[in-house]
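Consider today's protein:

***
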Amino acid sequence: MEKIFIKYLTNSISSPELDKLSKWAEEHNDENEFETYVKINYAISNCMSEYNLEESKKALLKKIRKDKNILYRLNFNSFLKYAAIAILFIGVGYIFQQNFNRKDKVVPTEGMVTLQLENGSVEVLPEYIEESTGNLKEYKVSGTNGEGSTVQSKKLVFNTLKVPYGKKFKVVLADGTKVHLNSGTSLKYPIGFINGKNREVFLNGEAYFDVAKDAKNPFIVHTNEVNVRVVGTQFVISSYPEDTNINTVLVEGSVGLFKKGEEFSVESASMLDPGHKATWNKVEKNISIEEVNTSDYTEWMNGKVVFNHMAFKDILKKLERHYDVSITNYNKQLDEEQFTASFDTETIEEVLSAFNINYSIDYQINDNEILIN
């Protein structure tokens, strides 16, 4: 329940989870049962010097209304149930804050975008969402000039952005390079680049890069086994540790791939043209290049999930990241079966139902755990 409550407070809860939270609140209506969860609420809101009953009530009710707009399938009666939950939390929060020790506050980070500073401290980043459109806003690194020129720095200081499953995030680096991070991704980057040296970042997961042009300071993305060097271009890299392949898809411009530990040279690097994908096989240690439809590899930025002749085992990994669920497949005969499909606003329940209708796939859903029989 704690994870669900955190999701509620951070606007990342799903409709089934809201139903579960409502039912739980109705069954546990004494103050002691709520104490642990109110502590989370107060920790997240600890920017207030004192717990303000009216302000908390307004904030939580505003969140409820936002939930109602996003989860448009909920009916009016459900909305009243969630408003009742908010009032219960507010009342207990007012009582609990008297004994809350700010010196020992712990802000939960599960399910949240975090920024780890070079000194090891971790900050929780807010949701950068444009309310009118629902699109992600850009988080700008301190010192970003946004004009594509390298920020002067005497020493490289690295921060690491971590995006959990079920979330996406956009960041603008110090040189103006824009990076759109997919679910389950981390990016290590310097808060400022040094003029005369390569602009280097380290990726674990999947990201779309729109690199600011700077011919004197090439941009290099490091993954576990291969690196990608560019001057100014747009491309996608997918380098999840659990995947067999590392994929680089070039949208425009030019990039060169070279093995980790090697120096870049045009002669030895694998150069990529727009509309092509380079695949590094981690087992065979080689690169293959093919022409592709680049939109299949960029639609995730628009909230879509696209499978194009993809093996079922890889589809499950993609669904886990996108929907923040855990999937166990006991039907191993399906692992290598290939499927083509595209989903937009569908829930995980609707996606699995579509597979069941078209391919007779049997499954069970228990909270955030899915079993395929």
The chain has three domains: 2-104, 114-296, 304-372. The helical segments are 2-9, 15-27, 31-44, 53-70, 76-96, 312-323, 348-359. The CA atoms of residues 235 and 250 lie 4 Å apart.
